[in-house]
Amino acid sequence: MRSYPRSGPGGRPPAAGRRAAVGVVLVGAVLAVGGCAVGPDPAGPPAEVAVPAATASPLPAGSGAASPSAPARVPDTLRFTAKTLDGTAFSAAELAGRPVVLWFWAPWCATCASQAWTVAEIAPKYRDTVPIVGVAGLGEQRAMKDFVSEFDLAGTPQLDDRAGALWRRFEVVEQSTFLVIDRDGKVVHQGFLDGEDLTRRVAALAG
Fold first, then answer.
1. Is residue 18 within 8 Å of residue 59, measured between CB atoms?
2. pLDDT digits (tens, 9 = 90+) for 35-56
3. 113-128 burial, b for 16+ CB within 10 Å, e for fewer?
C-alpha cells in the first residue's frame, strides 16, 4: 500500500434681480445635473473599479458561497493548489467559507470503485454547498482518467496527485479516505465512509 464599497413694477423683479435669479437657476441646474450623474465624464479618464481580492467559489456560485464584497478567510487546510486530471488549474482557497469533502482514491482500488457511484450521484446536488473534490493518487494518469470516465465523475473536480503531495500534506496513508472539512476549515472527519455515511454527512453539512 502506497501513501503520500424685492419685486419691481408690476410684480416683476428688477433687471439686476432677474439677472441674479437667472444666475442662481443656472447654478442650481448645473449642480442638479452633477448630482444625478451615474457614470464618469466620457471626456475624462476612465473610472477605477475596486475588485475584491478573491471570491468564494471555483464552481457556480450558490447559497453557500461567500459574498464577493466580503471574501471568506482562507483556512490553512485550503491553502493549496493543484492540477485536475484534465490539466485545469485548481485553487482550494476559492472554496473557503463552505464545507468541503476531499476524497482520496486510487484507480485500481475496488473500495474506491464502490464509493464512486455515491460520489457521482450526490456531488452534483451539493456542488454549491458542499463541494466534493477527488484527489487521485497511487496510479497512472491514464488509469485515473479511465476511472473518472467509467464512474461518470467528470462533473466533479478530480485532482491529479500522482506525486502524492496532497496525500502527504494531509497524512493520508490508505485509500479510500474521505477528509471532511467544515466551513471554518476544521477537519471533522478523516477516514473511511460508506455511501450511506457519506450521504448523511454531506446532507448535514449542507443543511
1. no
2. 333 333 333 333 232 323 333 3
3. bebbebbbebbeebbb
Q: Which amino acid is at 2?
A: R
Give the span between the Cα atoms of 133 and 157, in whole angstroms.
Answer: 5
Q: How far is CA 78 from the centre of its chain?
A: 12
* pLDDT attached to residue 21: 38
Report the b/e string of 137-171 with b at 16+ CB within 10 A: bbbeeeebbebbeebebeebbbbbbeeeebbeebe
CATH no., domain 76-206: 3.40.30.10
Give Cβ neighbours of residue 62 (< 8 Å, ≥ 6 apart): 127, 128, 129
Contact in structure between 80 and 92 (CB atoms under 8 Å): yes
Please write the tens of the pLDDT for every residue from 105-138.
Answer: 999 999 999 999 999 999 999 999 999 999 999 9
Contact 14, 177 (CB under 8 A): no
The angle at the Cα of 175, spanning 2 to 169, to the nearest 5 degrees, equals: 70
Distance (Å, rounded) from C-alpha 59 to C-alpha 64?
Answer: 11
